[in-house]
Design a protein that fits this description.
95 residues, 39% helix, 0% strand
Length: 95
């Protein structure tokens, strides 16, 4: 005696994350940056505002190694940490 439990014809349609999926760092390419960030958090009672530079460095590592989509640092909330000379040099190469 087999009964099928069918509670309607609707099926769950999973949606991808808003920013898309990104691969895990299986090779540990950004592990040193992650460890510095995590140590900073522990040393500062998990106040992430004290570790923004290390967070930026970690995200840049992930973007540089294609472990996440490239995003402008301004869009990620790091506008105040961007080196103005480096930013100008990047803009000059785009022109």
């Amino acid at each position: 005696m087999s009964t099928a439990m069918n509670f309607g014809s609707k099926t769950f349609q999973p949606r991808p994350p808003e920013k898309g999926s990104f691969p895990l760092d299986h090779l540990g390419e950004c592990k040193a940056f992650k460890e510095k960030f995590m140590k900073c958090l522990r040393d500062n009672n998990f106040d992430n505002s004290m570790c923004r530079q290390k967070s930026k460095d970690y995200l840049e590592c992930r973007m540089d190694r294609q472990l996440m989509a490239k995003e402008p640092l301004e869009k990620l909330g790091f506008k105040d940490l961007i080196d103005p000379l480096r930013n100008q040099a990047e803009n000059n190469t785009k022109s």
